Amino acid sequence: MLLANALPLLHALAAAAVFAFGGVLGGLAVLYVLPPLASRLLWVVFGRPAGRYGVADRSFSVWWVTLQLQTLFLRLPFLEELLRLVPGLYSAWLRLWGSRLGARTYWSPGTVVLDRGYLDLGDDVALGAGVRLNGHVLQRGADGRLELVVDVIRVGDRAALGGYSLFTAGSTVAAGESLRACLISPPYSRWEGGRRVKSASDEGVRTALLP
Q: Hey, which bits of 63-141 come out as E strands?
C-alpha cells in the first residue's frame, strides 16, 4: 500500500512528459482519462468496496489505491474547475469514474468530490458553492480500531444542496429537497422534509461489494 502513495507524483510526471513529447491530446488523456480507467479496472477485478472495513482488509487497499489515483485532482482543484467550464463535461468525466449522474447537474464553484466513483445524482440537481461530497470517512469503530466507511452518496431529482454542506458515505437526499447551507450529514443519513430522518446508528452499516 505504501507504493500506492507514489501514484499522484507518477501521475503528474507522466502527464507532464506526454504533454512535452507526445502532444496535447496525449497529455490530456494521461491526465484525465487514464486514472478513471485504472480505477474501473480495479473494481472489475476486486469489486467496488461499499460498507465498513478495517485497514487490513483487501477492500481498504482497493479503496486506497483508487483514492491515490484521484489525489492529483484534490491537490490541484483547478484541474476540475477547468472541466466545469464546459457544460456537461465534468459530469461525463465523473461517469467515467463510475458515478451515475442525471441530466443538468449544476456544479457551483468550489464543489469538492472526494470519491469520484461514489455518486448517484438524479436530474436537475443543484450543488451550492463549497459543497463537499465525501464518499468515505475514516473513524474509530466500536472496538476502538480505525475503520473505513465508504459508500455511494445518493441525491434525488430536483434536489438542491445548500452551500458549504458536507455529505458523507451513504448519505441519501430525497427528490425535491432544498437543504440549508452548512449541513453535516453523517454516514448513511437520509434527508427528507428538510431534516435528517435516518442514520447508520439506527440500522447498522452493511459490508458489500457493489457491481
A: 100-101, 106-107, 112-113, 119-121, 126-127, 132-133, 136-140
48: exposed, middle or buried (C-beta count within 10 Å: 0-12, 13-18, 19+)?
Answer: buried
Entry pTM: 0.92
Cα–Cα nearest to 112, from 162, 63, 166, 65: 166
Are 46 and 56 in contact by the 8 Å Cβ rule? The answer is no
pLDDT tens string 169-198:
999 999 999 999 999 999 999 999 999 996
SS3 of 68, please? helix
Length of the chain: 211
Q: Are 199 and 188 in contact (CB under 8 A)?
A: yes
Closest CA to 175 of 129, 120, 98: 120
Asked whether 138 and 55 are in contact (CB, 8 A), the reply is no
Residues 10/38, Cβ–Cβ less than 8 Å: no
Q: Residue 118 carries which side chain, given as an amino acid letter? A: Y
Q: Can you give the residue ranges of every domain in the chain? A: 3-201
Fold of 3-201: UDP N-Acetylglucosamine Acyltransferase; domain 1 (2.160.10)
CA–CA separation, 107 and 92 (whole Å): 13
